Structures are given as C-alpha cells and as structure tokens.
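SAMPLE LOG
Freezer: B-3
Tube label: C17
Construct: single chain, 331 aa
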Amino acid sequence: MKYTQLGRTGLKVSRLVLGTMNFGPQTDEADSHAIMDAALDAGINFFDTANVYGWGENKGRTEKIIGNWFAQGGDRRDKVVLATKVYGNMAPDDSSLWPNHDKLSALNIRRAVDASLKRLQTDYIDVYQFHHIDRRTPFEEIWQAIDVLIQQGKILYVGSSNFPGYKIAQANELAARRGGTIGLVSEQCLYNLAERRAEMEVIPAAQDYGLGVIPWSPLHGGLLGGVLKKEVEGGRRASGRSADALKDTKTREQIQAYEDLLDKHGLEPGEAALAWLLTRPGVTGPIVGPRTAGQLESALRAVELELSEELLDGLDEIFPGPGPSPEAFAW
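STRUCTURE (predicted):
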C-alpha cells in the first residue's frame, strides 16, 4: 500500500479509503469484520463511516459494527485513522419531536460526537467530518463547538463532505481569523471519470486551502465498473440509478467506448477508474466500499496500476470534464 499526507497535515493515510456504508445494510457483521481485517492487513489504514449509516431505523448500526471490531483488540483502533460524519438526523422516532438532532448546531455536534464515540467504542475520532453544509448555523458557532471537542481530546482533525468551493473558503477563512482550530483538512466529494464537476471549483479550493480530496462514488454507482461487459457475460445486471442512466443512448455509448478502450489496454474498468483518480491533482485517495472480500482485492490492484499517457488522453476524450473555473462558463 502507498501512503500520503492528508492535505496539509502531518497525518499519513493510505491511498485507498475503506468506505463502510454497506456494513449492516448489505454486508453482515461477520463479513464486515473480515473485510476490515483484510483491508488492514493490506495496509489500508483510513476507514470512513458516518453516524447515519445503517439508515432508517438502523441508523448508527455501521458505527456499532466498527466499534465491535475495534473491541476485538489486536491494536485495531491504534492502526486505523478513523473518520466519521455528523449532520444527518439521528432522532429516535418522529423527527418533528426532536428538532435538535441533526445538522451542525453546537448542541447537535456535542450530542452527536458523544453518541458516535459510544457506538465506535473509542475515546477519540481522528477526522470528524461535516456531512453537508448547514445553511442556518454560522461557522462561528460550529468552530466554537469544534474547539471544545479538540480541547477535550474527542476529535483531532475536521473535514467536510459535499461542500461547494465557496463554503470551503468561508470555513477556513473564519477558522484562520479565530486562531483556534486549523480548519478543514479534507473534503469528501462526488468525483469520478463520469462526474467531474468538482474540478471546476471544489478541488481548486481544496488545493488552495490545503485540504486532501477524498472522492466518493469512484465507480459512479457501478457505471464505471464494467457494467456492460457483465451484462454480455451474463453476470450482474445494472440496477437502480445505473440502469436508469444506461437507458440514455448517449450515456450507454459513452460507457461502451470506455469499456472498449480499457479492453484494448487489457485493463479492468473498475480498477482503471480508481487508478485514474489516483493520478488526479489534490486527491488523497478514493473511497472504496466493498460488499465482499473479492471487491476489496480488485480495488487493491488499482494502487499498483500505471496508466499510460495514451490511455489518459483517451479517457479525457470520452469523459472530457467541465474544465476549470471560470473558463468553464466564461471567457
């Protein structure tokens, strides 16, 4: 496994991030533990989760699965850089009766971090991430709450997720003026070959402010994982949003051209899509969310792939991206 610094920090993290969203809803606890063991054995030390994972009446379940894995010992917790998120509603029942159990108020941040620590069976979180912007809560309040948690030793670093570029700038400018926390150190955003809008402003903002970029959905919901090839071979067919996307003739032709190009170079689509992200400026590492040990093994091979300039140029022709801001929408 290869490692890099997380943004401008001294923290060393693996070039692949283990996403845990499937733990609970699609992967049972025993298999989830086996995947985490395999990831750690392979050198992946950066694990990502969120307090709402498990979803619905099972929200919090994923953090509990991770906490039970930590409780097995073997220095599991000490070897892992643990990231979780706050924002989603964690109310126990009718949310209208619990108006302060979501978003980024100082009250909810304090409550949410303590609940996550209990579920995760740990006394600190390495990277505490804001899952979404909160349009109602000022950053003065957010940073004041974060300063207290850092002083208490409950969190070490703070990251964002799904932030636009201007909010990254706003958050870090205020953090600098306050002189407390060092501000955001990472941004977790939707970014892959087929969805490159983050290149316009989010990634440039992250680079300017020293945030490590952590792409989620690196295979674009399975579209970049060889979905057409699997259909031909009689394997798993596209479903959900991927199936809907392939109903569009232009999208289907684009994915077919992508798979044909990689077949020409003797590469597996999913592995190449991950390897492409590892070539992108500012990217710390993409989040891989394996449902099985086999999917983890495939993701690991991406770290060792070397993509030729010819292939990179070919990928840019198929998925050109929007271009940088402001040239993408102005002169």
